[in-house]
# Entry
Amino acid sequence: MRGVSSNGYSQFWKSPQKSNLTKTQDADSFNQKQGLSKAQKRTITIGSILTGVVAFGLFAYKRNLKVLKKLYDENIVLQNLPEKIDFKEAKTVEEAVKFTKDVLKVKDVDEGFTLDALNFVNKGLTEVSNANKGKVFMPRKIWFDEMAAKEENCIAYINQDIKSPYFGHLSINKKYFNDEFMSKKLNKLLVRFDYHKGKLNINTPKTLDIGLDYEPKVYDLLDKYHESADSLNILEKRELYFNLLNGYKFLESKFYLSPLSLLSSNLETFNNIGIKVDVDAFKKLSTEEQSKKLKDLFLQLQEKTGI
# Structure
């Protein structure tokens, strides 16, 4: 095979003892003289094959490590940046690109970036760098892509395909920097938070408070959005969307991972609505059964309150 000499292979297949075979002797006569059984012959053969396979596997592993190291060195570069970088939003795309290249040491930046998107990237990479005191792997290039529908929930990703010429490059989803797209995503998510026909009912017993604890700023953004969706700029819409999304995912995980805790925090709500819960019986259920029971309780709550 390419990259390995014949000598490199032959050493794995040679017997550790000097062969007693002459040109006129065959293997069977040799084995009979040595008194080897068929089982022993099979053992020796299998052992030799396994030795060769393992040896080649180790060789291939070391070779792949060298290839991977080369790929990482070229595409995901370990930078020694200042321990603390002060981020300030750029006023122009040119200023933002200069910050990306000169301060964060990212070699290439896609020409299609908007100012909003590049400030978003620079802020995020600065926070990562500061969290690691300047010792951080940075991508060689950052792309600004409009990702396919199946990937649209991803705002950014690193290409992990080692066969791709773009391995290690950071891609930012262009859609999340489009105001119309962001509004649609936010409205769709707010349906889960008692949002109907352009209004968010934040004064009723609210789904938002079920197991969630948002910063005051999130509620301020919700108030503004309730008054007028257009009152939020795209950055605020993005911030509101991802805060609500993370909260919703956290709430969803509590259904599956800690249903008893979620029940306890909402027991008073169930009692006030007239939904009686046998807590002792609930505790005896498996976690999966508790999760199903809890979903049923919230469906009853929805039927009674419309929330």
User: Anything to note?
Assistant: The longest strand covers residues 76-80. Residues 12 and 192 are 64 Å apart (CA to CA). The beta strands are 76-80, 108-109, 135-139, 141-145, 156-158, 170-173, 195-196, 199-200. The chain has eleven helices and eight strands.
